[in-house]
Amino acid sequence: xxxxxxxxxxxxxxxxxxxxxxxxxxxxxxxxxxxxxxxxxxxxxxxxxxxxxxxxxxxxxxxxxxxxxxxxxxxxxxxxxxxxxxxxxxxxxxxxxxxxxxxxxxxxxxxxxxxxxxxxxxxxxxxxxxxxxxxxxxxxxxxxxxxxxxxxxxxxxxxxxxxxxxxxxxxxxxxxxxxxxxxxxxxxxxxxxxxxxxxxxxxxxxxxxxxxxxxxxxxxxxxxxxxxxxxxxxxxxxxxxxxxxxxxxxxxxxxxxxxxxxxxxxxxxxxxxxxxxxxxxxxxxxxxxxxxxxxxxxxxxxxxxxxxxxxxxxxxxxxxxxxxxxxxxxxxxxxxxxxxxxxxxxxxxxxxxxxxxxxxxxxxxxxxxxxxxxxxxxxxxxxxxxxxxxxxxxxxxxxxxxxxxxxxxxxxxxxxxxxxxxxxxxxxxxxxxxxxxxxxxxxxxxxxxxxxxxxxxxxxxxxxxxxxxxxxxxxxxxxxxxxxxx
Length: 486
What we know:
Blueprint: E1 13-15, E2 18-20, E3 27-31, E4 38-43, H1 47-66, H2 69-85, H3 87-98, H4 102-122, E5 129-131, E6 139-146, E7 149-153, H5 161-173, E8 176-180, H6 186-199, E9 206-208, H7 214-223, E10 227-233, H8 236-246, E11 252-256, E12 261-265, H9 271-283, E13 293-299, H10 303-315, H11 335-350, E14 354-357, E15 372-375, E16 392-398, H12 401-409, E17 413-414, E18 416-420, H13 424-433, E19 438-441, E20 456-457, E21 460-461, E22 474-481
Parallel strand pairs: 7-8, 7-10, 8-9, 10-11, 12-13, 12-18, 13-16, 15-16, 18-19
Antiparallel strand pairs: 1-2, 3-4, 5-6, 6-22, 11-21, 14-15, 17-20
Helix pairs in contact: 1-7, 2-4, 2-5, 2-6, 3-4, 3-6, 4-5, 7-8, 9-10
Family: Belongs to the aldehyde dehydrogenase family.
Pfam families: Aldedh
Protein name: Succinate-semialdehyde dehydrogenase/glutarate-semialdehyde dehydrogenase
């Protein structure tokens, strides 16, 4: 790939401030998901090298945490500036290894950088308290301190933002970090490490461990008692496994897991606005986001109008390589993702759904699937309960507010939900009744650095971003200061 700064394309691991191969020289291939071309051969680390990274982070922790918040902020701010200076190159790397359109990649680079900018400042505000005492000769004080070494296991769908959303608050409060990026997208993580090194992060503070053996590396990160916090974004099944493995050392956990987002459109909604929001939420990144609209519920009074307008909008989306400027929908990440989408669409059709747009792979590339719209969806279909993670929108009809709330909450997941309507009283009722950690009201885009991101039920726990994003990387220490009598 052609980059302005070819040094950003690193293929070695980054441990203790040095670029290193696997001890046995092993590598694994990184593929362009659109063309299946091998674009890099990355160091394939295992247990021994991961232990070395954990040791480096543990050694670096005392000095990094002893710095003032302002001193850490200066380094983080420089890292943010370098990322933005190299936005185009980072976007190219992202599109080549992940597949999303370049426009989306550029947006993600800026979004990911914004977490570093935000927490560079917010880290200065990890305040404690003075609490009114229980007796006259004592004072009660709380202070907040960094939890320690943090392990971050990150997904492939947002290969920069899912790293910075975890790493920035951790570094800002004085933690050190070991990152295991997804095996499909390690190049973005390594490019971030190159810029972190250039920004002046000391050796051992930020480490990147690429691997094609996630279970082996994950076992180290969950079992090693030197790691005091694990942050994971990925599937609910994997999150539960990591939680089990972390129990032996009672790690602090943040788990951002699967979703099954409802998108509700009431009769009084702005139909054009709801259609635009549905396209924005459902089809971004080819439907491969954890907060994508997964089930579209449309009230009977506007069902036909909404379907007609959405069908036009979906039909206009262009499938192709992410490197082309007019591409709206890039490839799915791998063959398994394509197989899942095809299985869910077939099951829906077999159980009565009608395909009115798409419904089949695209001839643009081996992992491309046409943006799809299904009508007459019902709760017997697998797509009503499984996260499709592809460019497929099933539409369900409903009649009453009570009915749709029950349908929307009929899932073990609780990450994001959306609804459109104008009745202010109903807006409050529905927003409070939906069992989700995040609710978009008359908008299909809810992600921002400034707001807390996270779910409830089997979508996990913990919050990332916003002022609340610091808390998961801090512990509260209570100081009882006695003997103050004259």
